[in-house]
Specification:
The complex is a heterodimer of chains A (186) and B (194). Chain A has five helices and seven strands, in the order βαααβββαβαββ. With 186 residues, chain A is α+β, with helices and mostly antiparallel strands. A seven-stranded mixed sheet of chain A has the order 1-2-3-4-5-7-6, sandwiched between helices. Chain B has 194 residues and is of the alpha+beta class. In chain B, helix 1 crosses helix 3. The chains are: A alpha+beta (186), B alpha+beta (194). At the A-B interface, strand 6 and strand 7 of A face strand 6 and strand 7 of B.
């Protein structure tokens, strides 16, 4: 890879920006799926309307502009440009550390390699473009696909906060995985 | 009978935060970079009394909703602060943050006792399931104090901090409700605080 190798175009997916007209309807459908929402977030799941998502995107873009530590992408299929999901990196500049998140929205797009290619491209972005030293992924122990994905990308389990999460009437650990720039396989 | 001695130990008591008292003290304490670098991942900064007081006033009902002033019983002198934040209501898990701002009171058991008091508050009044914290690996005195209060090591984020030209780990610790209760039944509720 060199300076002319695209940061944003992969073989299956493309990283791009929010489409304020079309994305709200699509993401609204994802938010009605408790499986997706509970894998993605630890706060109580609730469905969001297209209207609520439009406002959320506006707040997000304001935060990106003002905070200068958030890098956010929409994930689209190269084949037909349809929206697959979203991902972001949140950085602590003085320490060169960042936190990574990604989600593939609908069940039929999961387990197709989109997540892995997205993560691989995000790692390149994190280590070669914004030059971080390390990345963290925070994953509930019930999110088995995410645990498998981040292990496959060479992340190491560093922290296990025992019984930190309450869901479905029982407690679950919160796992934190880390990857240092020297461990990044590209 | 209820143990209504919830906020008072042998060395310290937990009291309310008042921007009038806390403002000048926090402003002064944070200019001691040794203190500020033990408390924060972010770069140490110099904030005015006006800005500090305004920040405290603004966050009294959110970030500082479970924050207490630590007062040494001798002279009822404010020496630092301690507070709980995080997913308190949803997941019953709070992150505790403590700072003994006055270096005269470092290494003498004041912080450890304040931590024991807030654990009692966390488990007996807020009814939390666990209490969490993180600590920098250049702060072994704090790590030792947290172990004495009953916290267990839960992992370390490697090289999370860059300071003085080298990388330092961010250490995570936690104590579960059942672990705290087991401590109390061994030591007795009051003794456990002290």
């Amino acid at each position: 890879m060199n300076i002319s190798t695209s940061l944003f175009d992969g073989s299956l997916i493309r990283l791009g920006s929010i489409d304020h007209d079309k994305d709200p309807e699509i993401e609204s459908r994802w938010t009605h799926d408790p499986t997706f929402m509970r894998m993605m977030y630890t706060d109580p799941m609730r469905p969001l309307s297209a209207f609520q998502l439009k406002k959320k995107y506006e707040a997000l873009e304001k935060e990106i502009d003002e905070a200068k530590n958030l890098y956010y992408f929409r994930i689209r299929a190269r084949a037909d440009e349809r929206l697959l999901g979203f991902c972001d990196l949140r950085c602590s500049w003085p320490n060169g550390s960042g936190q990574v998140r990604l989600g593939i929205g609908s069940a039929e797009d999961q387990r197709k390699g989109y997540g892995y290619e997205t993560l691989s491209m995000l790692l390149r972005y994190a280590f070669s473009e914004i030059c971080l030293y390390r990345l963290t992924a925070v994953i509930p122990e019930y999110n088995l696909p995410a645990l498998a994905l981040f292990k496959k990308a060479s992340f190491t389990e560093e922290v296990r906060r025992r019984e930190a999460l309450a869901r479905d009437g029982r407690r679950w650990d919160e796992c934190q995985f880390g990857l240092l720039v020297d461990e990044w396989k590209h | 009978m209820l143990d209504n001695n919830l906020l008072t130990g042998k060395l310290v008591r937990l009291a309310a935060i008042d921007p009038e008292t806390a403002g000048p003290l926090w402003t002064k304490w944070r200019l001691n970079s040794e203190y500020t670098r033990m408390a924060d991942l972010d770069p140490a900064t110099a904030n005015s009394l006006k800005a500090t007081r305004a920040w405290i006033e603004k966050h009294m009902d959110d970030w500082l909703a479970n924050e207490f002033e630590i007062r040494a019983l001798a002279g009822d002198q404010p020496i630092g602060s301690i507070g709980l934040g995080g997913e308190i209501k949803i997941h019953g898990d709070a992150f505790v943050g403590i700072g003994i701002g006055d270096p005269e009171f470092w290494g003498k058991g004041y912080g450890t006792e304040a931590m024991k008091l807030i654990l009692c508050y966390a488990f007996m009044e807020l009814n939390l399931h666990r209490v969490s914290l993180d600590v920098f690996d250049y702060n072994p005195r704090a790590l030792h104090s947290y172990e004495k209060a009953g916290f267990k090591l839960e992992g370390r984020k490697r090289g999370m901090l860059l300071r003085e030209g080298r990388r330092w780990d961010l250490i995570y610790m936690g104590i579960l409700r059942e672990e705290w209760l087991a401590q109390v039944s061994t030591n007795g509720a009051v003794q456990n605080k002290n």
